[in-house]
Every structure is written in structure tokens, then in C-alpha cells.
Design brief:
The protein has 3 domains: 79 residues, Arc Repressor Mutant, subunit A (Orthogonal Bundle); 106 residues, 3-Layer(aba) Sandwich (D-Maltodextrin-Binding Protein, domain 2); 101 residues, D-Maltodextrin-Binding Protein, domain 2 (3-Layer(aba) Sandwich), CATH 3.40.190.290. The protein contains 10 helices and 15 strands. It starts with a helix and ends in an 8-residue tail after the last helix. The model has no long low-confidence stretch (mean pLDDT 86).
């Protein structure tokens, strides 16, 4: 299969503009249109829908796009292995992450990254709701849990320490729990699925933080909302330290049961499909995030 035509298709899919994709590859608009038509003819499918006003991906084009990217990545890796070319960090990188974490730590760094790598464009999906990395055709994603999917590979960015916390106003009104069993008499704020967690005391005592067994009247799927509700005095929540370390420092939140550690071994991972070649654009973004965030996480200094 003609890889130049594949590059043209990938660019056209990213830009939704055939002429602009052709210009990037040094092709006149007529030549670009002709080459895409030949690619579609060879595949027996229309990859792009064209009209006088816009270009859009067809269903077949959406399904073919990740395979086209993979074939190009394989070609670039093969050439690099032979010393023929050095892979350039170019193209659109599709990155998915928790919106709460990204707003705090990643988005403020993006101008520096884009200045450092002018050939890369970023397509971000920011949401605290989990989704399928492969079906979404993402190059890279940030996840704060263990990697359970065998089709994924990952690099550790940082620990994801979690603690119980509440506002001073709430604790003044309802009292401060002295033992895990006291949580049953408090209002709890839970994140998403009310997943229970083990609490391990300094003496090795094991207890449970289980919103299902307590008075849990507020559940959210957004990390920022979880923090804001806790700040407002709605109850006790379990939060990632990276989400609330500033509030712990200024006293607007207080750690609850500080002698207990949450034992869920959660880690912030940068994950990508195992089948994918680690392209230059993905590699430099991983290295950048490790340099700026993972080397000395600010929240671990709390």
C-alpha cells in the first residue's frame, strides 16, 4: 500500500481539509484529491465524505484511521532502525486525561510543549469518566489506577496518594472522627461508583472506608466537584493528594484520620495501546510530562 497516500489520508482526516493536507505534503489540490480517490478505490471504501463546504470522515474512514496511523508508525520505526531517517516529532497527538488533573497540571504546561515541538498539534479529550482508549483511537492517555487491560502498556508518572478530608466548618458542626467506625455517623461524599477502600493504621490495623455502608447522599463523577463539595462543608470525602494539597496547606481542608493510610496502590500512568509503535510525538510528550511533573510532584511535598 502506498504510504504517501496513507500520510495524505491521515493528514486530511486530522485537518478535515484535503487541500491543506496536500499542501503540507507538497501536493497541488488536484493531485491530493486524485491520490485519495485512488486509495479509496484500492480499498473499496469511501474514507471521506466530500461536499462543497466541508470534508468529514466516513464510518469506514473512522475505522481505518488507527490502522493507517499504525502502518505509518511502523514504517517510520523501520527506517529509524536502519539509520535511514530520524523520526521527527510531528503530527496530531490525541491525548486523553482526567479533566481535573489536566486543568491543574497539564494544560498550564502546553504552551511550553508546543513551543518546544512546533511540528506537533494536540487533540485533547479531558473527562473524569473512563472510556476505551483503543476504540477512541487515542495515542496516549493518563489513568489513575492499575493497568488491568492487557492490550495497554504504560509509564508511571507519579504516585496517586489518596486521603480522607473535610472542611473545618463541617468538622466543627459534626465532630472529628477518631476511628474508622466513626465514619458511619458522618455524611460522606463519594466519587463515581462508591468503591470501598482499605484503611491501614500505623499499627497495622485494617479498616474499611465504604460509602455503601455509610450515609452517602452525594456522588459525583467529577474530581473538581468532589473537592468543591468538600470545601463547602457537604461531608467527608476521599481525594487524591494532587487534587487538594494546596487546600491542605492553606487550611481550607483538613485531613481526617491522618494516622490511617488508604491502601489502594493507585498510580498515575501514561498508557498507550500495546500494539502501537511508540512514535516520536508520543515519546517526546511522555518525556516532557515526566520531566515537568513526574520528576518531583509538587503534591508529594505536602
Amino acid at each position: 500500500m502506498d504510504t504517501d497516500s496513507l500520510r495524505l489520508f491521515v493528514l486530511a482526516a486530522e485537518k478535515l481539509n484535503i487541500s491543506a493536507a496536500g499542501r503540507d505534503l507538497g501536493m497541488p489540490p488536484a493531485v491530493a484529491s486524485s491520490r485519495l480517490a485512488k486509495l479509496e478505490q484500492s480499498l473499496g471504501s469511501d474514507l471521506l465524505h466530500r461536499s462543497t463546504r466541508k470534508v468529514s470522515l466516513s464510518t469506514e474512514g473512522e475505522e481505518f484511521l488507527p490502522f493507517a496511523r499504525e502502518m505509518l508508525a511502523q514504517e517510520d520505526a523501520a527506517r529509524a532502525a536502519l539509520g535511514l531517517t530520524r523520526p521527527q516529532a510531528t503530527g496530531t497527538l490525541r491525548f486523553a486525561a482526567s479533566s481535573t488533573f489536566a486543568q491543574l497540571y497539564i494544560v498550564p504546561l502546553l504552551p511550553e510543549f508546543l513551543d518546544r515541538y512546533p511540528g506537533i498539534s494536540l487533540d485533547l479529550k479531558l473527562s473524569d469518566t473512563r472510556f476505551d482508549l483503543i476504540e477512541g483511537s487515542f495515542d496516549l492517555a493518563l489513568r489513575n489506577s492499575a493497568i488491568e487491560d492487557s492490550s495497554l502498556k504504560g509509564r508511571k508518572l507519579a504516585r496517586d496518594t489518596r486521603i480522607l478530608c473535610a472542611s473545618p466548618v463541617y468538622l466543627a458542626r459534626r465532630g472529628t472522627p477518631q476511628a474508622p467506625s466513626d465514619l458511619n455517623g458522618h455524611d460522606l461524599i463519594a466519587f463515581q461508583s462508591k468503591t470501598p477502600r482499605q484503611l491501614v493504621g500505623k499499627d497495622g490495623e485494617v479498616a474499611q472506608f465504604d460509602p455503601r455502608d455509610a450515609q452517602c447522599r452525594l456522588v459525583t463523577d467529577d474530581g473538581r466537584s468532589l473537592k468543591l463539595a468538600t470545601l463547602a462543608g457537604a461531608g467527608i470525602s476521599m481525594n487524591s493528594l494532587w487534587n487538594i494539597h494546596a487546600e491542605l496547606q492553606d487550611g481550607s481542608l483538613v485531613r481526617v484520620l491522618p494516622e490511617y493510610e488508604v491502601d489502594d496502590q493507585s498510580v498515575l500512568w501514561l498508557v498507550y495501546p500495546k500494539s502501537n509503535v511508540l512514535t516520536a510525538k508520543v515519546r517526546v510528550f511522555i518525556d516532557f510530562l515526566l520531566e515537568k511533573i513526574g520528576r518531583s510532584p509538587v503534591w508529594e511535598k505536602t
